Amino acid sequence: MATTQVAQQIALFEKCRNFTKAREVQAAGLYPYFTPITESEDTVVKIGGKSKVMMGSNNYLGLTHHPKVLEAARNALERYGSGCTGSRFLNGTLDLHETLEARLAQFMGKEACLVLSTGYQANLGLVSGLVGRGEIVYLDKLDHASIVDGAKLSFGDVVRFNHGDLAGLERIIARDDRPKGAMIIVDGIYSMEGDIADLPRLAPLAHRHGAALAVDDAHSVGVLGPTGAGTAEHFGVVDDVDIIVGTFSKSLASIGGFVAGQEYVIHYLKHHARPLIFSAALPPSNTAGVLAALEILQSEPERRAALWANTRLMADGLRSLGYDLGRSETPIIPVLVGTMESTFLFWRKMFDAGVFTNPVVPPAVPASQCRLRTSLMATHTKEQIDFALDAFAAIGRQLGVIS
Question: Is 22-54+301-399 assigned to CATH 3.40.800.20?
Answer without folding.
Answer: no
